[in-house]
Every structure is written in structure tokens, then in C-alpha cells.
Amino acid sequence: MNGRNIIAKCDKCGARNRIPENRMRDRPVCGKCRAPLTTTLIYPEYPLNVNDQSFFNEVVQFPGAAAAFFWAPSCPHCVRMLPVIDELAKQYAGKIKFVKLVTEQSPATASRFDVLGVPTLILFKAGRQVNRLFGAIPKEQLEYHLHALL
């Protein structure tokens, strides 16, 4: 048990449901309408680590809002932004799905989305890129752009 939670949005009534990650296989139901919860709108309270193989399924095919953080461990600005991205993932759980991608380990995805430098945050809505932010951006400015995504 790792203590992490997933926020699942009910397809029937739209309610946000907090589910412990280790209970996802127990066929959770909505706390409001008791409908079975599906995995189509899953928003973890933490950023998912993705790579070239998983990016398409986790972001491009995701029907809701998503924020993809492209970074590199050798970049001090990126490392400084990681706690901010973690905070934002928790703050926007149930509204925006956050993913992190290490560009050095997933060059195909970085190239596909024309990521020429890190850190880069690309915002998606229903799988389509709607905004791109470069550099170490203050949390308040990130929140402004994330709010506009909703």
C-alpha cells in the first residue's frame, strides 16, 4: 500500500470520487449515484511518469484536460519545478491529469511535440494541444494557464 489516491470522475453524474490506488481493481462505485466507475476519466493526485510508449494512451487519447511536463534530470530549473508540478497535480486532481516525461529517455515524443528545450509544459484538451509554456514559470502563472484550460 502506497497511500496514493486516484480521482475518478463519474460518467453518469459527474461527481469526483477519491479512490485509494490499491483499491482500483475492487470495482469502485460512485459515492453519489452508486454507478460503477470506469477508467475513462482518471485523474491521479500525482503526476504520472510516462514515456514514448505510454504518452499516446495517457495524454493524446485522454478525453479530458491534461498537462504534460517535459523535463530532464540534468536541468536545475526542471528539478526546481518538480515539487510545483506535484502540488498542482494534487490541487487540480479530478480536473486536470498531469504527466511527466523525461526527454532524454523519450526522444520520439519530445520530437513529435517539438520540445526544443526544457522545462516545457504542454496543455491538452481532449487530446489536442491548446497551450505551451517554456522555462521555469512561477506557480501563480501556471495556475492562470491551468484555470484557462478548464
Automatic annotation (TrEMBL):
Q: Which GO terms describe its biological process?
A: cell redox homeostasis
Coiled-coil region: none
What PROSITE patterns does this protein's entry cite? THIOREDOXIN_2
Annotated Thioredoxin domain residues: 37-150
GO CC annotations, alphabetized: cytosol
Query: InterPro entries recorded for this chain?
Result: Thio2_N (IPR049299), Thioredoxin-like_sf (IPR036249), Thioredoxin_domain (IPR013766)
Q: Which GO terms describe its molecular function?
A: protein-disulfide reductase activity
Q: What PANTHER family does the annotation carry?
A: GEO12009P1 (PTHR45663)
Q: Which SUPFAM superfamilies match?
A: Thioredoxin-like
Report the protein name in the record: Thioredoxin
Superkingdom of the source species: Bacteria
Q: What Pfam family does this protein match (any one)?
A: Thioredoxin
